[in-house]
Write a structure and sequence with these properties.
heterodimer, A: alpha/beta, six-stranded mixed sheet, B: mainly alpha, MetI-like fold, three-stranded antiparallel sheet, two-stranded antiparallel sheet, 22 helices, 5 strands, globular
Amino acid sequence: MSIADNALTDEMASRDDMIVCRGVKKWFGDFQALRGVDVTVKDREVMVVLGPSGSGKSTLIRCINRLEVHQEGDIIVDGVELTNDLRNIEKIRSEVGMVFQQFNLFPHLTVLDNITLAPIWVRKKPKAEAEAKAMELLERVGIPEQAAKFPGQLSGGQQQRVAIARSLAMEPRIMLFDEPTSALDPEMISEVLDVMKDLARGGMTMMVVTHEMGFAREVADRLVFMESGDVVEVGTPEHFFTNPQEERTKLFLSQIL
Amino acid sequence: MTDTTIDTAPPEAPLPSPVRWVRDNLFSSVSNTVQTVAFTAVLLGLLRWVLGLVFADESNWVSVATNMRLLFTYNYPAEQFVRIWFAAGVLFVAVGASFAAWNINPSITLRRIGVSLMGTGGITLVVALITPSATPSGLRTAMWVLGVALVVIAAVVLRVIPEPHRRRVPFLGLLIGVSAIVCAIMWFVPFGDYGFSEGEPTAADGIVASSTRVPWTVLFIIMIATYVAGRGLAQVVSLAPLRRAMIAWWVIGPAFIVFMVLRDPEFDWAHIWSTDLPMAAGFALGGGALIYLLAAPGRSDLARVLGAIVAAAAVFNWVAAFFGWYPMLQKARFSFALAAIAILLVPNFAGERSARLRVAAVWAGFMVVFHWLLTGINTASTLDITAPPFLGGFVLTVSIAYYVMLASFPLGVLLSLARTSKLPIFRVLSTTYIEVVRGVPLITVLFFFSIMLPLFLPSGMGISDLAAVFAGYTVFSAAYMAENIRGGLQSVRRGQYEAADALGLTTVQRTSLIVLPQALRVSIPNLVGQAIATFKETSLIAIVGGFDLLRIANSTIPNQPDFLGQKRPALLFISLVYFVVAYTMSRASRNLENRLQAGQAR
């Protein structure tokens, strides 16, 4: 697979494209964070985004659920184009789960309330149903016994697993992960990665910004390498770790591996 | 206070011996010893000076004791006093029920109690020792006896009972103990019975009048009974509905007390049946049905359009009122405006059938209470009071302070949200309001509202003095509340906004469910500080004509023929009243912070 495979030349995105970015440009003041990014993530695909800090990888996935607003180019998520229309944004956000580096759990709510909040208020689910679903998800991420605690009483790894459960409670079609293990102590990283691997095996469409090369190699269907707001190289893990084409990719991998 | 339990939860270190404590803390070094001696001398000097004020010859506490009724209720008619007691009873019940609903059950170790008793006893003995010679000898003897008794009890608690630092007295025991002490003072301490009889002060030896001590005792018993009953109820039913009921009571209840119980409106039943009741029912049922229909999922556009139309109609109604184009009851105008707001907010509460029914029911209940209150306020009082404000004294101070806090809080929240809004128009309006109000002295605002405001209002829209003062205080306090809450809003991290957005919450949901709860928690100390300030600033009400505590103490009592020029005792007394209330609020805020922190320990 090469860059040409990924670049979209025709107007019609294929039906199983979940996320399509075409020529996405983004400025913070005078600083250009994205310089025309073209990326496509297919249904049930796990896409890992690599790159040095400041390369725009977090900005890119934050543009996909419009936590950041891109200035040029198109982003189409699950067939819906991101525009300034408020309802479009809320619809896309409820279809796209996001897990943050700093967890961002709601500290004033219990674990259970953190998870049921959005299903009850956004999806208008009855409380009992939302709570049953939440317990099921806590079971799945391995911490059902923490349901009544507050986030501040949990370890970092447990908090991140709650954050994943919170996103899954909305039954999203796409999950975005923004460096989900970077704020964790080393002994807690694997418990979070295990949950993510499980999710990938279940067929979730995922876009993951991470520095965990082992995870990328094992789970990713494709990888994107970004630098200075540009997509440098796209390919399968095998292609990346055995035969990278670009000099910048080789340099980055030699530094990180 | 035999209701002790041994609790292992928060252990306290055993108490060091008193000699050891004194040596370690007061005389540990030469400089420490010098400081201790010097500050003790200063403290004793100050105490002696205060005692001189309290027991000086010219101080005649009879003026305070005789005017107690005036200080607390001003000229509320004595034959209607049962209304005051009833109001106090309702409040005591609410306090007991609220403590039960929120399971407020602090416990205190016997050691703490012993230390407090020891301190109180010691201070009493020092006071007995240095009190001026003018002090009545009976009082001096009483101080000696009390001081010795307290020290002996404290010694028993601390030295005889084993492990006093691990035995805790729970809240119910404290409540019973404190109530028993207060009642015992009223029933057994010979303060004397003072009062007025046909304009002449009367005095009799003995304990306070039975018309005072019997109601107070009953109130304490009722409060304890309510607490016990509430705890019992909490074992059977879940706490959530109990808490919701209590919150609703604390918002509506005091209005009920002031306007219905204390004011006793003379209802015009014919008018109520022909106009008020149908109108209330129309808004409650019609509005409720509309809200139920609009709250169905997928009808948000319809709701917004309809809301905009009703809002326009409501604004037009006010314009029409200003120019007098067509007659309409003010109540209807208010209701239309509220209906517009409710319809605009409906999409945020859309959901399944039970949720829609709940929203509609809340609206209907709100409309019923709202119309009932406005009807009550619009109706003349049956009270036989010569001066227009039916409230005065401590009752006025507390009522105004409570309502200003209640009304300025939501206003302050809205202002702070507007000030941090992304929309420039809101930001500019809110900032201007806050800066203008904060740049103007409170007294100017009060004058403006009591004198200028009625001039700007169209004829027929009279606004009573009390309402004008209340509006002035609210406007002033809201600006300060807004700034306090803004500080809290800034402490909420950006990640919280992003997480809420990423879950698809709307802006209103994000603000009310995620941002505000965290911001308000941080703002509690400042908000309580503002509440205390408001409570004390109610003394300015005297300037625009009200008879609050300060005015009664400073000008009413000193002008009575029998107590001409006697200001000092009354001023000392009201200082004590202000202090007790303000200190209670401050302690309550600290407890609230601790409770909230315990819930989410990091």
